[in-house]
Design brief:
12 strands; 137 residues; globular; mainly beta; binds calcium ion; Immunoglobulin-like; 1 helix
Length: 137
């Protein structure tokens, strides 16, 4: 497993360095909120929603929508997206949507299911995850 190593001398950039066996990759740790918090695999719906926040020094407006995937597989939908501050914490966020059935196909029932969002902002990879509940009834 790759380990996350904090680089303490550049905290304002909010980078972490992730070491693999062959290289060190610069990753921006994103804050991700997957909505809904409880996903019912039986429920009908068109989309699920994800809000992405980046650490200071990175601009969510520069996120390349086409680079965003959920669990490395489901691509974000090109439209609609929205820049805003949905949780009113003064950190700008980007809302993206994913095809609901495509996401549901990737997830299994569980009380704590991790959903990971990765993508690129200004050419640099970011990732972040949220924990949701997945039910099937
Ligand atoms: Ca959530
Ligand atoms: Ca926010």
């Amino acid at each position: 497993m790759a380990e996350d190593v904090q680089i303490s001398d550049i905290p304002s950039q909010g980078y972490i360095a992730r070491s693999t066996e062959t290289e060190v990759i610069q990753i921006i740790p994103a804050t991700v909120d997957f909505d809904p918090d409880t996903l019912n695999l039986k429920a009908q719906g068109k989309w699920v929603t994800v809000y992405i926040e980046l650490p200071m020094g990175h601009d969510v407006a520069q996120i390349d929508i086409s680079s965003i995937t959920l669990n490395g597989a489901a691509p974000a939908i090109a439209k609609p997206t929205e820049l805003g501050d949905y949780d009113a914490d003064e950190v700008p966020d980007l809302m993206v949507k994913f095809d609901r059935s495509g996401v549901q196909a990737l997830l299994e029932v569980g009380e704590e299911v991790e959903v990971t969002i990765t993508g690129k902002v200004a050419g640099i990879t970011f990732d972040g995850s949220d924990t949701i509940r997945v039910i099937d009834k």
